[in-house]
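Dear U.,

For the methods section draft, I wanted the exact inputs and outputs in one place so we can describe them consistently. I've listed the two proteins in the order they'll appear in the manuscript figures. Please don't edit the token lines directly; just add comments below if something needs changing.

First protein:
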Amino acid sequence: MIHISEIGQIFREEYGRSVAILVRVLGSIDAAEDAVQDAFTEAVARWPAAGLPPSPAGWIITTARNRAIDRLRREATGREKIAQAALLDGELQGGLHGWLHGDEAEGIEVDSVDDNQLRLIFTCCHPALNRAAQVALTLKLLGGLTTGEIAHAFLVPEPTMAQRLVRAKGKIRDAHIPYRVPTEAELRERLKSVLAVIYLVFNEGYAASSGAGLVREDLCREAIRLGRLIMELMPDEPEAKGLLALMLLLDARRAARTSPDGGLVRLADQDRSLWDTGLIAEGHRLVRECLKLNQPGPYQLQAAINAVHSDAAHPASTDWRQILALYGQLIAMEPTPVVALNRAVVLAEVEGPAAGLAAVDLLELGNYYLFHAVRAELLRRLGRNDEAVAAYRAARERTDNGAERDFLEARIRALTTTAPGPAAPTSGDPHGR
């Protein structure tokens, strides 16, 4: 018998692909979302008793198609509408034929470049939409993230994000924004938005904003897959290379980032023999290719930072001064509070925790849990335990991720039951990853 939680996991993994395919054949984002949601509702009702179908993804897409046809027929009035429903039925059958195989849609073909999800990303990243709407809508449609999770990624209230998503979908509908991969002339102007989308999808997978687990491997895999697709479309674009390198170097640590019971393991405490040497080698190769192009950008610099981390066989051998220099270049390109927070962490390793804390306290990130977590670590290293406990508690109140909350709880217990000791070096990343 399949558990409801397993269906929820399938929803996470297949939502984006299902919506992307249905948008292509229905021509409407809202209709595609409604149809896929209807299909998952039916799955929740049927699968616990009937069991998992041979191809859950194919079952969802086929069922969503049928629900879309049924809905159109219910809403149809007059011969013309009924004829349109019949025509749509034929178009759906033909349009899905290339993706669905067998009685239960045993497999789904995924093209190398002519990819449905890539089409949907570029639709969502159309210049008619503002940047925040572009990223938020793609996270919703491609990643299957909830409105609350997207709001967390943007550090905005959930109602604000809900309104943003409604407006973005309305703009696509009313402006008749095409569902296609742009021409070569259009690609570059939309690339920055697309890369931002992919990286936010990866980040939500790498450090999930909610739930019991730290990592959502499905989103990490999807972001890397989309990163490779962008590389295939634009092989000479250095920032596309940089983003893929960054994601590979971060994902290489996945096996070491959690304990057997799912607890968070900081970079300084990770068993580096568990790091994926193949992903590290590929990431380093891409970083070297970026250096040859000599067109530095934010993703390339972040990849270079993580390449330095991956060079260190032990935490003590990390070249913090080189990382600090790279952060200096990064903050010149992207002078954001989050980048400044990352730099402050590294500054603490080079010049000491007092210097790092002084830099952190200049930032206005009071609603960001990692701001409080970093402050807590630096206060702990300075022996200011009462302040550190208060900062850990502030961080705990601002995260919905179970693994992160457990980690922060352990830090609080350690400070309230034992004498302080020196903290291990961090990663130069507030996630300690």
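Second protein (the one for the lower panel):
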Amino acid sequence: MIRLKSLVRFLPLLFLLMLSSCYSFQGIAIAKEIETYYVAQFDNVSGNVVPTLAPNFTEKLKDKVRNESRLIYLDNQDADVEFSGVISDFRVTSEAPQPGEDVAFNRLTIGIRVEYTNRVKEEESTTIKSSFYAEYPSDTNLLDVQEDLIETITDQLVEDVFTKAFTNW
């Protein structure tokens, strides 16, 4: 009877161990030889220019790599890995027409193109293209919500760049 109780307690643990061996999480995968990074100032080549967008994106990317990796920032292009690129798209579109052709909400979309250069493992160098959007009510003035929307969108874009550059997904 005691063995049966022990077996019943042990089975869920065994089951969890079996499941964990079926899936492996691969996080950041930065080669040991890579020690430094550089982020060049991004340019804004989109038709609608928000003056602070490119500098803020540049700083967010620097901070993301600094805070979530062991890499050391170099203030020149001699780093082991380099990020450079442009804000390629900044646009507002009307979405979800309501009966009678009224617009329910607007969508702000920001797109980027990043050149990721890996001088240690050149085969990992790549161009990263990404875009993300946030929506806001059609009766709201963009200028009233623009700062918060840009913050949300650029956070996601930085996450995308970091993930594509440093993970094996």
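Candidate sentences for the figure legend, describing the second protein: DSSP finds three helices and six strands in the chain. Confidence is low (pLDDT under 50) at residues 13-26.

Thanks,
Y.
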